Amino acid sequence: MTKVLVATVKPFIPDAVEGIKKIVSEAGYEFSLLEKYADQAELIAAVADADAMIIRSDKATREVIQAGKNLKVIVRAGSGYDNIDLEAASEKSIVAMNTPGQNSNAVAELAMGMMVYLARNGYNGKAGTELKEKKLGIHAYGNVGKRIANIAKGFGMQVLVFRPTRPEEVGEKDGITFVGSAEELYSTCNYISVNIPANEQTKKSINYELLASMPQPATLVNAARKEIINEDDLLRVFEEREDFAYISDIAPDCKDTIAEKYPGRYFFTPKKMGAQTAEANINAGVAAATQIRDYFETGDTTFQVNK
Ligand code: 3PG
Predict the structure, then answer these.
(1) Which of 8, 29, 157, 195 could be disulfide-bonded to 145 (CB atoms 3.0-4.6 Å)?
(2) Torsion sign over Cα 258, 228, 284, 5
(3) 3-state class of 106 per DSSP?
């Protein structure tokens, strides 16, 4: 019997698990659940006889992939797939997929909420600032970037966008100013929301030159991945500019230094919180299960990321 393993250190809400289970059972497959596991060894043991695996930020390393003797498909219920060893998957002809767009509203709402939180000094009673009329630069215009742009327009922010995949798209469209380079975006905007994936090209790419060029006061918002920030450069900008603040969904490695030296100029979530809503859990979980069923039944590889 085809076995579908759901392996989540950070579990889905029960309704999302039920939704996945329903699709899996109705397709005639066996459902297996591994939640809140403390050790990779538990994942390695659980994947041994699975034909398909649904994960979140869980690390599908080469070791995990090789342990999955029957594994044919891995679906990352979410957007970023930097946690899957794609090379190892491809070597075994395992299809790796993500579920793009399913949790993007949750991530975008969190990014906006964190901006308000810091602009109001963590609600400490002192007068803060408003987002209205401030310039927000959105670095990449995927599902999350687009959603942030729409919400930010509702806040009355001036929205600018740089699309790394289409730098030639410049000019005004839908009330948004598209600019042709990251340099132009950062040097123009007081708020920057960085929404790029973490990969070999983008890791540590948000560097001193970009951050130091931001007009005063500057706030960097990162609801993507901590790895895209050059943390040495980040600390240098913190040190050089009293007006600089950093908001991140998941703390950077240098969080203790920032907390000690720059109080009031940061906000970090203790765990990755972007996709932690009931809606996002259900959307991404159900999409993952549906994609697995469709792959087994019709060979559909629409969302494959290791083509
Ligand atoms: C994503 O890439 O989809 C988000 O970072 C959410 O990740 P999570 O499912 O591990 O919370």
Answers:
(1) 195
(2) negative
(3) helix
**137-178 pLDDT tens trace:** 999 999 999 999 999 999 999 999 999 999 999 999 999 999
3-state DSSP: the chain helix, strand, coil percent, rounded to 5?
Answer: 40, 20, 40
Distance in Å, CA 258 to ligand 1 centroid: 24
Give the list of residues 6+ apart from residue 47 with CB closer than 8 angstroms, or none: 5, 7, 53, 64, 67, 68, 71
Residue found by looking up tokens 């041994």 in the block: 48
What DSSP state is assigned to residue 36? S
CB-defined site of ligand 1, < 6 Å: 10, 56-57, 78-80, 103, 272, 274-275
Q: What size, in residues, is the chain?
A: 307
Four-CA torsion 178, 179, 185, 188, nearest 10 degrees: -90
This model's pTM is above 0.90: yes
Task: Give the helix ranges, DSSP H, for 78-165.
Answer: 86-91, 104-119, 143-154
